[in-house]
Model the fold of this input.
Amino acid sequence: MSRLLIKNGLLIDPVSGERRGDLLLSGSRIVRAGGRISPPAGCREFDASGLWVFPGFVDLHVHAREPGAEAAETLASAAAAAAAGGVTSALLMPNTSPPMDSPALLREYVSRTAGLPANLYFSAAATTGRAGRSPSRLAALKKAGAAAFTDDGSAIPPRLLPGLIRSAAALGTPLLNHSEDFSRTGQGVINEGPASRRLGVPGIPPAAELNAVLADLLAASSAGPLHLQHLSLASSVAALWAAKACGWKVTGETCPHYFTLSDADIRKDDASFKMKPPLRSPADRDAVLAAVLDGTIDAVATDHAPHEAALKARGLARAPFGIIGLETLAPLCVTVLVRANGLPKKRLAALTSLNPARLLGLERKGRLAAGFDADVAVLDPSSARRVPAAFVSRSSNSPFVGRKLTGWPVLTVLAGKTVFSSR
Ligand SMILES: [Zn+2]
Done:
């Protein structure tokens, strides 16, 4: 059995906290975490002196674009980008073409992920064709491999949501929703406010998100568990806090761009700043950051949304929504959350690994402890590097190109095997 000893790193476990020591992986499991471990015969070694060793990141929100837009990304290129970002498990969104709404399609694509350098889990469409007219056959989709249900890219209509919440809960499979009132979004392309007026483009009012978030939380109050995707507003995270305070079974995610950037950062007609929901006001950014720090937000996910350069070159008004994120997740979290705002590293491990693993029911993922899967992300907390213009991803639509960050991945291990190394 292949063994790997990661020596002398700072081991960061979301439950027991951080301690300096060694981590021994044997086959696909962690066998020992902490203390001095002498290498068994034939064991590979990695010197992690000065480095941070995290459980591999679990990203709840990734668009791999296959089938339908393979020029932007494929399962293989998304998995490679994930590995380069320390992401060992990713939940794929179903808004492919055709959408993931049939057991046969799911089975076919699940079978294509074998041997890739990251675990790719599929979410299936919550409604047939993601059209919001009739609920999908959830039990059959789960049997075919669906790890979650969502219509991401579209919102589950309020009239179908309570029934879908109950059906998904009965199966023990998470239901995720993209909370958006499209009648309010209209033709908007960035947040409605000073930035949209300055740039002369139609705005998306905050109510497009808040109205939907409030309706979704109310549905969850009586029907059961619901996970809200990519929250971007001060009012959304306040509503999530209040819902949790009432004891409702709700969880929420945000993305690094919402706690790092605001619409004031959109200086010109540059569609690498265009995503949905849009970058909000500086006050919203600060409130989302506070909600990550205080635990209101359960998970940081990327909403990795690759697009071909030619499409993004069309400008704010005409380019598609979305930015890539897998390769910048770790350095943005380290730079913004840990370095600039004092988030304890063990909390970062909960936000990026343990909490999302628990949501997906991945019981052996999310911790650096004996018996857990040997999925590991080793980061360099000291050397600063600018985000390069070229990515492992097939696409490069990132607003962070050129930004100086620390906390880049240097080693990613999946099931005991090295899937990325920068050394
Ligand atoms: Zn979405």
User: Anything to note?
Assistant: The chain has a mean pLDDT of 98. The longest strand covers residues 3-13.
